[in-house]
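Researcher: Good morning. I'm working through a list of sequences from a screen, and I'd like to move beyond sequence-only analysis. For each chain I'm collecting a predicted structure so we can compare shapes side by side. This is the next one on the list. No need for commentary yet; just the structure.
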Amino acid sequence: MENIEKIIKSHNTKIIKGHQQRLPCNCREACRLDGECRTKNAVYKAEVSIPQEELPMNYIGISEPETKARLSNHYKAFNDRKYIKDSALTEYIWELKDRGITDYTIKWSIIRKVPKFNKSRGLCNLCIAEKLEISNFKDRDKLINIQLQIATHCLHWRKHTLGKFQPK
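Model: Good morning. Structure tokens for this chain:
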């Protein structure tokens, strides 16, 4: 039987390697995230630049699946008004479109990568990191996020509960 030290080291190595593994970009066109599109559990930033304004507006969000999938959902919402309540970024983009501004550009970047929801501690590092980035953002006038986002509860914990369990 293995000793406890060996079991713990093996477990920690597995977690560290899994967290650091970087999947290669598989974009058909130019990657929106400079090859980091397949990053999971990431806090990302979108800088929306408008030619008439000097400084860009910023949005901070999180992505538990690959960031590429989250960005695809954003673009789907930008093109279909029925998804306008999808995020504060979507509402902002539709506000621009309503004012006739269509020559905006969005620059995406990953701010940080964090471990996913911790079942044993009941904490979501992803949601905590997003709230920290929003609250530490220097120029609040250039932040699209609604300040109420800091007070919301984590939605990731639900999939780690037996709430969806249906006995036969």
